[in-house]
Design a protein that fits this description.
The chain has 62 residues and is mostly helical. The protein has one domain (2-58). The protein contains 4 helices and 2 strands. The protein has helices at 2-5, 17-20, 35-46, 50-58; strands at 10-11, 25-26. Strand 1 (10-11), helix 2 (17-20) and strand 2 form a beta-alpha-beta unit. The model has no long low-confidence stretch (mean pLDDT 93).
Amino acid sequence: PMLVRAGFSACPADADPEVAARVDYVCGTAGGQGAVRELAELILKAQGRWGEAIARWTGGEP
Protein backbone atom coordinates (compact mmCIF):
# COMPACT_ATOMS: atom_id res chain seq x y z
CA PRO A 1 0.00 0.00 0.00
CA MET A 2 1.13 3.52 -0.79
CA LEU A 3 0.75 4.75 2.79
CA VAL A 4 3.26 2.14 3.90
CA ARG A 5 5.67 2.68 1.00
CA ALA A 6 5.77 6.46 1.35
CA GLY A 7 8.50 7.88 3.54
CA PHE A 8 5.93 10.01 5.35
CA SER A 9 2.15 9.85 5.20
CA ALA A 10 -0.53 12.24 6.39
CA CYS A 11 -4.23 12.89 6.11
CA PRO A 12 -6.69 15.65 6.98
CA ALA A 13 -8.61 15.59 10.26
CA ASP A 14 -11.77 14.40 8.55
CA ALA A 15 -10.15 11.41 6.80
CA ASP A 16 -11.65 7.96 7.07
CA PRO A 17 -10.74 6.51 10.51
CA GLU A 18 -9.07 3.50 8.88
CA VAL A 19 -6.77 5.83 6.94
CA ALA A 20 -6.08 8.04 9.96
CA ALA A 21 -5.04 4.98 11.97
CA ARG A 22 -2.34 4.13 9.42
CA VAL A 23 -0.67 7.47 8.67
CA ASP A 24 2.27 9.15 10.39
CA TYR A 25 0.47 12.45 10.92
CA VAL A 26 -3.17 13.48 11.14
CA CYS A 27 -3.69 17.19 10.51
CA GLY A 28 -5.64 19.21 13.02
CA THR A 29 -7.63 20.71 10.15
CA ALA A 30 -10.10 19.14 7.78
CA GLY A 31 -9.80 18.83 4.02
CA GLY A 32 -10.67 22.13 2.38
CA GLN A 33 -10.06 23.94 5.67
CA GLY A 34 -6.26 24.31 5.60
CA ALA A 35 -4.92 20.76 5.89
CA VAL A 36 -2.54 21.15 2.93
CA ARG A 37 -1.21 24.44 4.28
CA GLU A 38 -0.74 22.86 7.71
CA LEU A 39 1.15 19.93 6.21
CA ALA A 40 3.33 22.19 4.03
CA GLU A 41 4.26 24.25 7.09
CA LEU A 42 5.05 21.10 9.08
CA ILE A 43 7.35 19.76 6.35
CA LEU A 44 9.11 23.08 5.73
CA LYS A 45 9.77 23.53 9.45
CA ALA A 46 11.07 19.96 9.77
CA GLN A 47 13.45 20.65 6.88
CA GLY A 48 14.59 23.94 8.42
CA ARG A 49 13.27 25.86 5.41
CA TRP A 50 10.31 27.69 6.97
CA GLY A 51 12.13 31.04 7.27
CA GLU A 52 13.27 30.82 3.65
CA ALA A 53 9.73 30.08 2.48
CA ILE A 54 8.26 32.99 4.43
CA ALA A 55 10.93 35.30 3.04
CA ARG A 56 10.12 34.23 -0.52
CA TRP A 57 6.40 34.76 0.03
CA THR A 58 6.84 38.17 1.65
CA GLY A 59 9.80 39.48 -0.35
CA GLY A 60 11.96 39.65 2.78
CA GLU A 61 15.28 38.13 3.77
CA PRO A 62 15.48 34.58 5.16
